[in-house]
Amino acid sequence: MPHTLQYRPVLIDTLISNERINSYQNVFQPANDVELMGVYLWNTHVCGALYPLIAMVEITLRNAIDQALTPELGHFWWSGARLHHHSHAQTAAPPHPVQAVQDNFVKATRKYIADIRSRHRVRGHVTPSHAGVLAKTEFSTWEYLLDAEFMGRGLIWPRYLSTAFRGTWPARRTSLVLTHVRDLVVTLRAFRNRVFHHEPAWKRYGVTSEIEALRHLHEKIDKIETLLALIHPENIRLLRINGLLRNAHRTCTSDEIRRYQHLARMHEIDSLDTLADLARDCAIKNCAFAARLPLLPNDRLLILPA
User: Fold this and answer.
1) Domain range enclosing 294
2) Together in a domain, 20 and 127
3) Do 248 and 294 have their domain in common?
4) Contact 216, 209 (CB under 8 A)
């Protein structure tokens, strides 16, 4: 039972720390340590539900851009003088976004070579692989590559933007679309770092209540969906068919918080009709139900929509 756990001084004070968990107390106002730990565990549940969405953003974004540039610029389009920028002829030193792209690919190449040597015990020269280097790039690479420095006549944008982003554009002007896409990437990269580094996914300046925290999370899911749809509509179809978008939205609800706080209603399944009703409500309302059978009162069941 949840009340038998040693929340203090073991779990909260020592293993998690009050510094980390205080923000949960301030925003969600739990009545006791069981509820406090519940909302903390709910956040890990949220991060798990968001992970495949953010991973798809990162992977499809880099591959869409790479496949747009490779046919004409070659497999190592980021190397040498192939990647021109707006200030190319005016300044000796590249502007920050351009230098950041170059540095990121140098770093990715080194990571790839180090990984090959480590895993395959290779000594001496290692020939970089296009796919291998691309897979080692940091998410920030694509934020910098979408900078206005690469927008102009003879540059990669706008020439390849429609090839990289095949969804419905929010505007006709390429410069506006580029700015829109970059803003989405900037926002989602910061959000991705928070989620992947085990920080509160809901946390943002101005979030002071549970309602605001949940609203913030749904806003981020909407931005993820917007960017994935811009990259290619098939991204969204894949997530919807497999229930990943519904799962993310369901996870970011007060009902899910209550479930982790052990405050959710326990449904008694005393007949097949009761089970059928619960399953139907679960699918229609996109919610999870805690349940149990009369013959197994100590065993909890969870009914989830597909």
Assistant:
1) 265-306
2) yes
3) no
4) no
pLDDT (0 to 100) of residue 90: 56
What DSSP assignment string belongs to 30-48? -SSHHHHHHHHHHHHHHHH
Q: Are 136 and 112 in contact (CB under 8 A)?
A: yes
Residue 101: both structure tokens together:
């792209």
Q: Is the pLDDT of residue 48 over 70?
A: yes
Residues 292, 255: one domain? no
Q: Which residue has the higher pLDDT, 93 or 276?
A: 276
SS3 for 281-304 is HHHHHCCCEEEEECCEEEEEEEEC
Q: Quick check: helix, strand or coil at residue 151?
A: strand
Residue 88 pLDDT > 70 = no
| pLDDT tens per residue, range 108-141 | 999 999 999 998 887 888 899 999 999 999 999 9
Same domain flag for 241 and 270:
no
Same domain for 20 and 165, yes or no, is: yes
On whether the CB atoms of residues 58 and 43 are closer than 8 A, the answer is no
Using a cut of 0.70, tell me whether the model's pTM lies above it: yes
Q: d(Cα 188, Cα 115) in Å, to the nearest integer?
A: 27
The total number of structural domains that make up the chain:
2
Alpha carbon 290 to its chain centroid, in Å, reads 27
Q: What percent of the chain has pLDDT over 70?
A: 98
Q: Give the helix ranges, DSSP H, for 74-135.
A: 96-120, 130-135
Distances (CA, A) of 8 to 3, 4, 199, 208, 268: 11, 11, 21, 25, 33
User: Do residues 256 and 285 both lie within one domain?
Assistant: no
